[in-house]
Design a protein that fits this description.
Layout (H helix, E strand, L loop, with lengths): L7 E7 L4 E6 L6 E7 L8 E7 L3 E6 L6 E6 L3 E6 L9 E6 L3 E6 L4 E6 L3 E6 L9 E7 H5 L3 E7 L5 E8 L4 E8 L15 E2 L25 E5 L2 H31 L4 H22 L3 E6 L9 H8 L8 E7 L5 E7 L4 E2 H4 L8 E2 L3 H5 L11 E2 L12 H28 L1
Antiparallel strand pairs: 1-2, 2-3, 3-4, 5-6, 6-7, 7-8, 9-10, 10-11, 11-12, 13-14, 14-15, 15-16, 17-18, 18-19, 19-20, 21-22, 22-23
Helix pairs in contact: 2-3
Length: 422
Protein backbone atom coordinates (compact mmCIF):
# COMPACT_ATOMS: atom_id res chain seq x y z
CA UNK A 1 0.00 0.00 0.00
CA UNK A 2 2.99 2.30 0.47
CA UNK A 3 2.02 5.63 2.00
CA UNK A 4 -1.51 5.38 0.61
CA UNK A 5 -4.10 5.33 3.40
CA UNK A 6 -7.35 3.50 2.74
CA UNK A 7 -10.49 2.66 4.65
CA UNK A 8 -11.02 -1.05 5.25
CA UNK A 9 -14.39 -2.29 4.06
CA UNK A 10 -14.10 -6.04 4.75
CA UNK A 11 -12.18 -8.48 6.92
CA UNK A 12 -11.76 -12.27 7.20
CA UNK A 13 -9.50 -14.64 9.11
CA UNK A 14 -8.44 -18.29 8.88
CA UNK A 15 -7.03 -19.70 12.10
CA UNK A 16 -5.63 -22.89 10.60
CA UNK A 17 -3.69 -20.88 8.03
CA UNK A 18 -2.74 -18.04 10.42
CA UNK A 19 -4.10 -15.63 7.80
CA UNK A 20 -5.96 -12.33 8.02
CA UNK A 21 -7.40 -10.78 4.86
CA UNK A 22 -8.64 -7.21 4.49
CA UNK A 23 -10.34 -5.40 1.62
CA UNK A 24 -10.14 -1.67 1.02
CA UNK A 25 -12.33 1.09 -0.33
CA UNK A 26 -11.58 2.36 -3.84
CA UNK A 27 -8.91 5.05 -3.45
CA UNK A 28 -6.98 6.67 -6.28
CA UNK A 29 -8.58 4.24 -8.76
CA UNK A 30 -7.37 1.21 -6.78
CA UNK A 31 -9.10 -1.25 -4.45
CA UNK A 32 -6.84 -3.81 -2.80
CA UNK A 33 -6.99 -7.14 -1.00
CA UNK A 34 -4.22 -7.62 1.56
CA UNK A 35 -3.39 -10.89 3.30
CA UNK A 36 -1.17 -11.08 6.39
CA UNK A 37 0.42 -14.05 8.13
CA UNK A 38 -0.04 -13.46 11.87
CA UNK A 39 3.26 -15.22 12.58
CA UNK A 40 5.37 -12.96 10.37
CA UNK A 41 6.08 -9.24 10.03
CA UNK A 42 3.54 -6.46 9.61
CA UNK A 43 4.04 -6.44 5.83
CA UNK A 44 1.28 -8.26 3.88
CA UNK A 45 2.13 -11.74 2.58
CA UNK A 46 -0.10 -11.18 -0.46
CA UNK A 47 -1.48 -8.01 -2.02
CA UNK A 48 -3.91 -7.97 -4.95
CA UNK A 49 -4.59 -4.58 -6.52
CA UNK A 50 -6.31 -5.64 -9.75
CA UNK A 51 -8.71 -8.38 -8.65
CA UNK A 52 -11.48 -5.78 -8.19
CA UNK A 53 -12.11 -2.32 -9.62
CA UNK A 54 -14.28 -0.98 -6.79
CA UNK A 55 -14.81 -1.27 -3.01
CA UNK A 56 -14.10 -4.78 -1.68
CA UNK A 57 -17.20 -5.37 0.44
CA UNK A 58 -16.87 -9.05 1.40
CA UNK A 59 -14.12 -11.58 2.10
CA UNK A 60 -14.24 -15.20 3.22
CA UNK A 61 -11.93 -18.21 3.40
CA UNK A 62 -12.88 -21.63 2.04
CA UNK A 63 -14.23 -23.93 4.81
CA UNK A 64 -11.67 -26.71 4.15
CA UNK A 65 -8.91 -25.08 2.08
CA UNK A 66 -7.64 -21.83 3.61
CA UNK A 67 -5.63 -21.10 0.48
CA UNK A 68 -8.86 -20.26 -1.35
CA UNK A 69 -10.22 -16.78 -0.69
CA UNK A 70 -13.64 -15.49 -1.76
CA UNK A 71 -14.00 -11.77 -2.42
CA UNK A 72 -16.99 -9.63 -3.37
CA UNK A 73 -17.07 -6.04 -4.57
CA UNK A 74 -19.36 -3.26 -5.69
CA UNK A 75 -17.90 -3.82 -9.16
CA UNK A 76 -20.39 -6.71 -9.36
CA UNK A 77 -17.97 -9.64 -9.14
CA UNK A 78 -17.60 -12.49 -6.68
CA UNK A 79 -14.11 -13.94 -7.20
CA UNK A 80 -12.51 -17.13 -5.93
CA UNK A 81 -8.75 -16.60 -5.58
CA UNK A 82 -6.04 -19.22 -5.10
CA UNK A 83 -3.47 -17.56 -2.84
CA UNK A 84 -0.85 -20.18 -3.68
CA UNK A 85 -0.40 -18.42 -7.02
CA UNK A 86 1.90 -15.40 -7.04
CA UNK A 87 0.92 -14.02 -10.46
CA UNK A 88 -2.04 -11.66 -9.95
CA UNK A 89 -3.19 -12.25 -13.53
CA UNK A 90 -3.76 -15.93 -12.70
CA UNK A 91 -4.89 -15.74 -9.08
CA UNK A 92 -8.65 -15.63 -9.89
CA UNK A 93 -9.67 -19.23 -10.51
CA UNK A 94 -13.39 -18.45 -10.91
CA UNK A 95 -15.60 -15.36 -11.08
CA UNK A 96 -19.35 -14.87 -10.75
CA UNK A 97 -20.97 -11.70 -12.09
CA UNK A 98 -23.77 -11.02 -9.63
CA UNK A 99 -24.15 -7.26 -9.20
CA UNK A 100 -22.95 -4.82 -6.53
CA UNK A 101 -22.08 -7.30 -3.75
CA UNK A 102 -23.36 -6.70 -0.24
CA UNK A 103 -22.93 -10.23 1.18
CA UNK A 104 -21.18 -13.33 -0.19
CA UNK A 105 -19.62 -16.48 1.18
CA UNK A 106 -19.08 -20.22 1.01
CA UNK A 107 -22.02 -22.47 1.93
CA UNK A 108 -20.14 -25.72 1.26
CA UNK A 109 -16.91 -26.84 -0.34
CA UNK A 110 -18.22 -25.88 -3.80
CA UNK A 111 -21.32 -23.72 -3.30
CA UNK A 112 -21.29 -19.95 -2.95
CA UNK A 113 -24.04 -17.46 -2.18
CA UNK A 114 -24.18 -13.80 -3.16
CA UNK A 115 -26.55 -10.97 -2.25
CA UNK A 116 -26.43 -7.56 -3.91
CA UNK A 117 -27.11 -4.12 -2.48
CA UNK A 118 -30.53 -4.20 -4.14
CA UNK A 119 -31.17 -7.54 -2.33
CA UNK A 120 -30.84 -9.85 -5.36
CA UNK A 121 -29.94 -13.32 -4.03
CA UNK A 122 -28.40 -16.25 -5.92
CA UNK A 123 -26.37 -19.42 -5.42
CA UNK A 124 -23.36 -20.41 -7.53
CA UNK A 125 -21.27 -23.57 -7.77
CA UNK A 126 -17.55 -23.72 -8.45
CA UNK A 127 -17.53 -27.46 -9.21
CA UNK A 128 -15.98 -28.46 -12.53
CA UNK A 129 -19.13 -30.15 -13.83
CA UNK A 130 -21.26 -27.01 -13.37
CA UNK A 131 -21.45 -24.33 -16.07
CA UNK A 132 -18.95 -21.63 -15.18
CA UNK A 133 -20.36 -18.35 -13.93
CA UNK A 134 -24.04 -19.31 -14.07
CA UNK A 135 -26.29 -19.24 -11.01
CA UNK A 136 -27.57 -22.65 -9.88
CA UNK A 137 -30.40 -20.96 -7.98
CA UNK A 138 -31.60 -17.40 -8.60
CA UNK A 139 -34.20 -16.12 -6.13
CA UNK A 140 -34.21 -12.61 -7.58
CA UNK A 141 -35.26 -9.94 -5.09
CA UNK A 142 -35.26 -11.80 -1.77
CA UNK A 143 -37.47 -9.11 -0.25
CA UNK A 144 -40.31 -10.28 -2.48
CA UNK A 145 -39.57 -13.97 -1.87
CA UNK A 146 -39.46 -13.72 1.93
CA UNK A 147 -41.60 -10.65 2.62
CA UNK A 148 -38.81 -8.65 4.25
CA UNK A 149 -37.01 -5.35 3.81
CA UNK A 150 -33.38 -6.46 3.99
CA UNK A 151 -31.12 -9.51 4.14
CA UNK A 152 -28.76 -9.43 7.11
CA UNK A 153 -26.50 -12.38 6.33
CA UNK A 154 -26.29 -16.09 5.48
CA UNK A 155 -24.37 -18.61 7.59
CA UNK A 156 -23.65 -22.24 6.62
CA UNK A 157 -24.40 -25.06 9.03
CA UNK A 158 -21.43 -26.67 10.74
CA UNK A 159 -21.86 -29.85 8.69
CA UNK A 160 -22.22 -27.79 5.47
CA UNK A 161 -25.56 -29.51 4.85
CA UNK A 162 -27.52 -26.29 4.62
CA UNK A 163 -27.58 -22.67 5.68
CA UNK A 164 -29.50 -20.18 7.80
CA UNK A 165 -30.71 -16.96 6.17
CA UNK A 166 -31.39 -13.95 8.40
CA UNK A 167 -33.80 -11.27 7.15
CA UNK A 168 -35.52 -8.35 8.83
CA UNK A 169 -38.01 -5.53 8.58
CA UNK A 170 -37.50 -2.11 10.17
CA UNK A 171 -41.14 -1.12 9.76
CA UNK A 172 -42.33 -4.13 11.79
CA UNK A 173 -39.33 -4.35 14.17
CA UNK A 174 -39.05 -7.98 13.09
CA UNK A 175 -36.19 -10.38 12.42
CA UNK A 176 -36.66 -13.89 11.00
CA UNK A 177 -34.44 -16.90 10.32
CA UNK A 178 -35.02 -19.13 7.29
CA UNK A 179 -33.57 -22.58 6.67
CA UNK A 180 -31.95 -23.25 3.31
CA UNK A 181 -31.59 -27.04 2.96
CA UNK A 182 -30.04 -29.41 0.45
CA UNK A 183 -32.23 -31.31 -1.97
CA UNK A 184 -32.08 -34.99 -2.76
CA UNK A 185 -29.42 -34.33 -5.39
CA UNK A 186 -27.15 -32.75 -2.79
CA UNK A 187 -27.58 -29.21 -4.12
CA UNK A 188 -28.95 -26.33 -2.10
CA UNK A 189 -32.54 -25.58 -3.06
CA UNK A 190 -35.54 -23.56 -1.95
CA UNK A 191 -38.20 -25.53 -3.82
CA UNK A 192 -40.30 -28.61 -3.05
CA UNK A 193 -40.11 -30.14 0.42
CA UNK A 194 -36.74 -28.46 1.02
CA UNK A 195 -38.09 -24.94 0.46
CA UNK A 196 -37.08 -21.97 2.59
CA UNK A 197 -39.01 -22.41 5.83
CA UNK A 198 -39.08 -19.65 8.46
CA UNK A 199 -38.25 -20.26 12.09
CA UNK A 200 -41.47 -19.45 14.04
CA UNK A 201 -41.51 -15.84 15.18
CA UNK A 202 -43.98 -13.60 16.94
CA UNK A 203 -45.69 -10.72 15.22
CA UNK A 204 -47.34 -10.24 11.84
CA UNK A 205 -45.41 -11.00 8.69
CA UNK A 206 -44.06 -7.82 7.09
CA UNK A 207 -45.36 -6.69 3.75
CA UNK A 208 -42.98 -7.18 0.83
CA UNK A 209 -40.72 -4.20 0.22
CA UNK A 210 -40.87 -2.54 -3.17
CA UNK A 211 -38.38 -3.95 -5.61
CA UNK A 212 -35.41 -1.97 -6.79
CA UNK A 213 -34.84 -2.14 -10.55
CA UNK A 214 -31.69 -3.94 -11.59
CA UNK A 215 -28.83 -1.64 -12.51
CA UNK A 216 -30.28 1.32 -10.61
CA UNK A 217 -27.80 4.11 -9.89
CA UNK A 218 -26.69 4.88 -6.35
CA UNK A 219 -29.45 6.45 -4.29
CA UNK A 220 -27.21 9.05 -2.62
CA UNK A 221 -24.40 11.36 -3.66
CA UNK A 222 -20.81 10.96 -2.53
CA UNK A 223 -21.19 14.15 -0.46
CA UNK A 224 -24.61 13.93 1.16
CA UNK A 225 -26.23 16.76 3.13
CA UNK A 226 -27.64 15.61 6.49
CA UNK A 227 -28.27 18.95 8.25
CA UNK A 228 -29.45 22.37 7.14
CA UNK A 229 -30.48 25.08 9.56
CA UNK A 230 -32.76 26.77 7.04
CA UNK A 231 -32.33 29.57 4.54
CA UNK A 232 -34.18 32.11 6.70
CA UNK A 233 -31.95 31.61 9.74
CA UNK A 234 -28.81 31.67 7.60
CA UNK A 235 -29.79 34.96 5.94
CA UNK A 236 -30.68 36.51 9.31
CA UNK A 237 -27.32 35.62 10.89
CA UNK A 238 -25.39 36.79 7.82
CA UNK A 239 -27.37 40.07 7.82
CA UNK A 240 -26.65 40.51 11.55
CA UNK A 241 -22.92 40.08 10.96
CA UNK A 242 -22.88 42.58 8.10
CA UNK A 243 -24.93 45.08 10.11
CA UNK A 244 -22.48 45.05 13.03
CA UNK A 245 -19.58 45.51 10.60
CA UNK A 246 -21.36 48.53 9.14
CA UNK A 247 -21.91 49.95 12.65
CA UNK A 248 -18.26 49.39 13.53
CA UNK A 249 -17.08 51.17 10.38
CA UNK A 250 -19.58 54.01 10.87
CA UNK A 251 -18.74 54.70 14.52
CA UNK A 252 -15.03 53.87 14.23
CA UNK A 253 -14.16 55.60 10.96
CA UNK A 254 -16.66 58.49 10.86
CA UNK A 255 -18.18 59.40 14.23
CA UNK A 256 -15.16 58.77 16.47
CA UNK A 257 -12.73 60.87 14.33
CA UNK A 258 -15.26 63.73 14.30
CA UNK A 259 -15.46 63.61 18.11
CA UNK A 260 -11.67 63.68 18.31
CA UNK A 261 -11.53 66.65 15.95
CA UNK A 262 -14.13 68.49 18.07
CA UNK A 263 -12.10 67.80 21.27
CA UNK A 264 -15.03 66.08 22.96
CA UNK A 265 -14.43 64.63 26.45
CA UNK A 266 -12.48 61.34 26.38
CA UNK A 267 -15.29 59.36 27.99
CA UNK A 268 -17.76 60.52 25.34
CA UNK A 269 -15.38 59.68 22.48
CA UNK A 270 -14.66 56.28 24.03
CA UNK A 271 -18.36 55.61 24.45
CA UNK A 272 -19.04 56.40 20.80
CA UNK A 273 -16.25 54.07 19.71
CA UNK A 274 -17.61 51.28 21.93
CA UNK A 275 -21.07 51.73 20.37
CA UNK A 276 -19.63 50.24 17.20
CA UNK A 277 -17.14 47.82 18.77
CA UNK A 278 -19.26 46.02 21.38
CA UNK A 279 -22.02 44.87 18.96
CA UNK A 280 -19.36 43.61 16.54
CA UNK A 281 -17.53 41.59 19.20
CA UNK A 282 -20.74 40.24 20.73
CA UNK A 283 -22.24 39.09 17.43
CA UNK A 284 -18.91 37.70 16.20
CA UNK A 285 -18.53 35.61 19.37
CA UNK A 286 -22.10 34.37 19.67
CA UNK A 287 -22.56 33.50 15.98
CA UNK A 288 -19.10 32.05 15.38
CA UNK A 289 -20.23 28.44 16.16
CA UNK A 290 -23.49 28.79 14.17
CA UNK A 291 -23.71 25.76 11.83
CA UNK A 292 -25.57 26.26 8.56
CA UNK A 293 -25.09 22.79 7.02
CA UNK A 294 -23.43 19.42 7.58
CA UNK A 295 -22.39 16.99 4.84
CA UNK A 296 -21.26 13.39 5.22
CA UNK A 297 -19.20 11.17 2.93
CA UNK A 298 -20.70 7.68 3.37
CA UNK A 299 -18.91 4.71 1.77
CA UNK A 300 -20.20 3.55 -1.58
CA UNK A 301 -21.96 0.53 -0.08
CA UNK A 302 -24.03 2.84 2.15
CA UNK A 303 -25.16 4.97 -0.79
CA UNK A 304 -26.84 2.12 -2.64
CA UNK A 305 -30.28 2.42 -1.01
CA UNK A 306 -32.11 3.98 1.97
CA UNK A 307 -31.85 0.64 3.79
CA UNK A 308 -28.08 0.52 3.26
CA UNK A 309 -27.67 4.10 4.49
CA UNK A 310 -29.81 3.36 7.55
CA UNK A 311 -27.71 0.31 8.40
CA UNK A 312 -24.56 2.43 8.03
CA UNK A 313 -25.89 5.24 10.24
CA UNK A 314 -27.04 2.84 12.95
CA UNK A 315 -23.93 0.63 12.61
CA UNK A 316 -22.62 2.77 14.33
CA UNK A 317 -20.58 4.50 11.59
CA UNK A 318 -16.77 4.39 11.89
CA UNK A 319 -15.08 7.24 13.74
CA UNK A 320 -13.05 7.86 10.56
CA UNK A 321 -16.18 8.81 8.57
CA UNK A 322 -15.49 12.16 6.93
CA UNK A 323 -17.87 15.08 7.47
CA UNK A 324 -17.91 18.75 6.45
CA UNK A 325 -19.42 21.37 8.78
CA UNK A 326 -20.33 24.73 7.24
CA UNK A 327 -20.36 27.92 9.32
CA UNK A 328 -20.32 31.65 8.51
CA UNK A 329 -17.18 33.77 8.61
CA UNK A 330 -17.00 37.23 10.17
CA UNK A 331 -18.36 38.81 6.96
CA UNK A 332 -21.08 36.18 6.47
CA UNK A 333 -19.17 34.15 3.89
CA UNK A 334 -19.62 30.33 4.03
CA UNK A 335 -16.74 28.55 5.74
CA UNK A 336 -16.28 24.75 5.54
CA UNK A 337 -14.45 22.78 8.24
CA UNK A 338 -13.30 19.30 7.21
CA UNK A 339 -13.01 16.62 9.90
CA UNK A 340 -13.94 13.06 10.82
CA UNK A 341 -16.80 11.97 13.04
CA UNK A 342 -14.44 10.88 15.81
CA UNK A 343 -13.17 14.47 16.21
CA UNK A 344 -16.49 15.73 17.58
CA UNK A 345 -17.37 15.66 21.28
CA UNK A 346 -20.12 17.42 23.27
CA UNK A 347 -19.00 21.00 24.01
CA UNK A 348 -19.71 20.61 27.72
CA UNK A 349 -17.31 17.66 27.87
CA UNK A 350 -14.61 19.67 26.10
CA UNK A 351 -15.09 22.55 28.53
CA UNK A 352 -16.00 24.93 25.73
CA UNK A 353 -18.97 26.85 24.54
CA UNK A 354 -20.27 28.66 27.60
CA UNK A 355 -23.80 27.55 26.67
CA UNK A 356 -23.41 28.79 23.07
CA UNK A 357 -21.85 25.73 21.39
CA UNK A 358 -23.08 22.17 21.79
CA UNK A 359 -20.26 20.44 19.85
CA UNK A 360 -16.50 20.91 19.89
CA UNK A 361 -13.29 19.44 18.54
CA UNK A 362 -9.56 19.65 19.29
CA UNK A 363 -7.96 21.93 16.68
CA UNK A 364 -4.40 22.03 18.00
CA UNK A 365 -3.05 19.69 15.32
CA UNK A 366 -4.86 21.58 12.53
CA UNK A 367 -3.66 24.97 13.77
CA UNK A 368 -0.06 23.73 14.09
CA UNK A 369 0.21 23.39 10.30
CA UNK A 370 -2.04 26.33 9.46
CA UNK A 371 -0.41 29.43 7.88
CA UNK A 372 -0.04 32.29 10.37
CA UNK A 373 -2.08 34.64 8.20
CA UNK A 374 -5.20 32.43 8.26
CA UNK A 375 -7.81 32.45 11.00
CA UNK A 376 -7.59 29.50 13.43
CA UNK A 377 -9.67 26.42 12.62
CA UNK A 378 -13.21 26.46 13.99
CA UNK A 379 -13.27 24.54 17.28
CA UNK A 380 -16.85 25.13 18.48
CA UNK A 381 -20.13 24.38 16.73
CA UNK A 382 -23.78 24.97 17.50
CA UNK A 383 -26.55 23.03 15.77
CA UNK A 384 -30.15 24.14 15.98
CA UNK A 385 -32.35 21.16 16.88
CA UNK A 386 -32.59 18.44 14.25
CA UNK A 387 -32.03 20.90 11.41
CA UNK A 388 -34.23 18.96 8.96
CA UNK A 389 -35.25 21.98 6.88
CA UNK A 390 -36.14 20.16 3.66
CA UNK A 391 -33.34 17.59 4.13
CA UNK A 392 -34.54 14.07 3.31
CA UNK A 393 -31.58 12.48 5.12
CA UNK A 394 -31.81 14.68 8.21
CA UNK A 395 -32.42 11.57 10.31
CA UNK A 396 -28.77 10.60 9.71
CA UNK A 397 -27.64 13.61 11.75
CA UNK A 398 -29.88 12.52 14.63
CA UNK A 399 -28.20 9.11 14.59
CA UNK A 400 -24.74 10.72 14.51
CA UNK A 401 -25.56 13.03 17.43
CA UNK A 402 -26.70 10.04 19.47
CA UNK A 403 -23.50 8.19 18.56
CA UNK A 404 -21.34 11.17 19.61
CA UNK A 405 -23.10 11.34 22.97
CA UNK A 406 -23.04 7.56 23.43
CA UNK A 407 -19.32 7.35 22.64
CA UNK A 408 -18.53 10.17 25.04
CA UNK A 409 -20.65 8.58 27.76
CA UNK A 410 -18.83 5.28 27.28
CA UNK A 411 -15.47 7.06 27.51
CA UNK A 412 -16.47 8.80 30.75
CA UNK A 413 -17.69 5.50 32.17
CA UNK A 414 -14.41 3.78 31.30
CA UNK A 415 -12.46 6.66 32.82
CA UNK A 416 -14.48 6.47 36.02
CA UNK A 417 -13.90 2.73 36.34
CA UNK A 418 -10.17 3.29 35.79
CA UNK A 419 -10.03 5.82 38.63
CA UNK A 420 -11.90 3.44 40.93
CA UNK A 421 -9.37 0.68 40.23
CA UNK A 422 -6.50 3.07 41.03
Amino acid sequence: MGDRRCSLTSLACAGENHAIAAGTELTNHQASILVWDTRSTVAPRRQYNEVHSDDVTELGFHPTDANLLLSGSTDGLVNICDMRLTDEDEVVMQAFNHGSVHRAGFLSTTEVFASSHDEKFALYNMADEVEKGSATLDLGDIRESLGCQYLANVFPKLNLAGAVVGVGSQDHSLFRLYHLAKGTDGALSSSGPQRLAPVPAKGPAPAPAPATPAGQRLAYAERQIIYHVGTGRTIFVAWLKLTTIFLFVFFGAIVTPSFLASHEPWWRTTGVFLCGTIPLLFVAYTTHPFVTAIHIYPPRIARASPEALRRFARGPPPAATRIDISTLSLIGKPRVSEMVLGDLVPAATAGRGGGIANLARDTRAANAVRPWWRFPAVARFWTFGAGEDGVRTGWVWRELRQEIERREGAARGAGGRGQERR
